[in-house]
Amino acid sequence: MTAQQDIARRAFPDRALKMLYSAYPDAHARLSHDLADHPLLSREALAALAERLPSDRVEYNRGDLPLGIRPEETPQNGLSIGETIRGIDSNGSWMVLKNVERDRLYGSLLDSALSEIASIVKARTGPMLNREAFIFLSSPNSVTPFHMDPEHNILLQIEGEKTMTVFPSGDRALVPAELSEAFHGGGHRNLPWDELFLTKAQAVHLCPGDAILVPVKAPHFVRNGNAVSISFSITWRSRRSVAEGELQSLNAWLRQRSLPLIPVRRAPERQWIGRLGYRLMRTLAV
User: Would you state the pLDDT for residue 93?
Assistant: First the structure.
């Protein structure tokens, strides 16, 4: 099989597409995939990728973190990028390679995988926007703290095992309105943690060949298993996620002025008056 054939091979079996169809866009879902042995996702290939990516596209730190930690308190591991990957078995680290789609080969891999689900996504939330890919590498027993992400995300487990504990999106007890507004204004993804949140959680155990659909801003944390974990995350934005960002940003502006806020509903892309208000706010802010 040639490298080009490897890239073009199917990522998702039919049963995974059926699960995605049932869950997208509001619920998380356990899926499956066929990329666990893909040569571009081997440790050797990822070490080479990390060393050729711009430095601002690689984030890495210690992996022995509590579930709730302030971004500024996250400890570094004291190693270089190459040292971190090559010693990931024993150096207690967590790493993410960001925007790997900017590399030609990984961009083709992302495009191939997303093309398989594009029709499902378009029917529910419109065309895929801002398509991106991320690769996570973590040492045994590493923790990714409680956080949320702004994209629709499917995380494909490539090597090792991990448990992702997922919480419902849109729950203000987990993510108060002020935090949502700050997040869309550039605030950090990490969230304050409370053990009482666990009553709302669902733990999803992932092995190579497993995947999980994570809705936009669904809070979650991750615990790695007893071996190195590698995961491939394929993401996209939508009219819905863009519209929510606009309304949350508008509410931040209104809140600063003690003005009434706009309720953000399940289908914010249909809230045309609020979105018009966002554009007016942007005009006034210039």
Answer: 75
How many Cα atoms are found within 13 Å in the side-chain-facing hemisphere of 14? Answer: 0
Nearest-angstrom CA–CA distance, 109 and 266? 31
What is the b/e burial string over 216-254, where b = at least 16 CB atoms within 10 angstroms of the residue's CB?
A: bbbbbbbbbbeebbbbbbbbbbbebbbbbbbbbbbbbbb
The residue whose two tokens read 């040569």 is 39
As its CATH architecture, domain 3-178+187-237 has Sandwich (2.60)
Q: How many CB atoms lie within 10 A of CB 86?
A: 14
Residue with tokens 């689900």: 117
In this predicted structure, what is the pLDDT of residue 266? Answer: 87
Averaged pLDDT score across all residues of the chain: 89
Distance CA 83, CA 209 (A): 27
| Domains in the chain: boundaries | 3-178+187-237, 242-285
Structure tokens at 15: 């049963």
Angle between helices 118-125 and 239-256 (to 10 degrees): 40
User: Three-state secondary structure along 118-160?
Assistant: HHHHHHHHCCCEEEEEEEEEECCCCEEEEECCCCEEEEEEEEC
Q: Which helix (H) or strand (E) holds 17?
A: helix 14-23
The C-alpha atoms of residue 224 and residue 23 are separated, in whole angstroms, by 25
Please say whether the beta carbons of 231 and 161 come within 8 A: no
pLDDT tens, residue by residue, 44-73: 899 889 888 888 898 766 555 455 656 554
Tally of CB atoms within 10 A around 207: 12
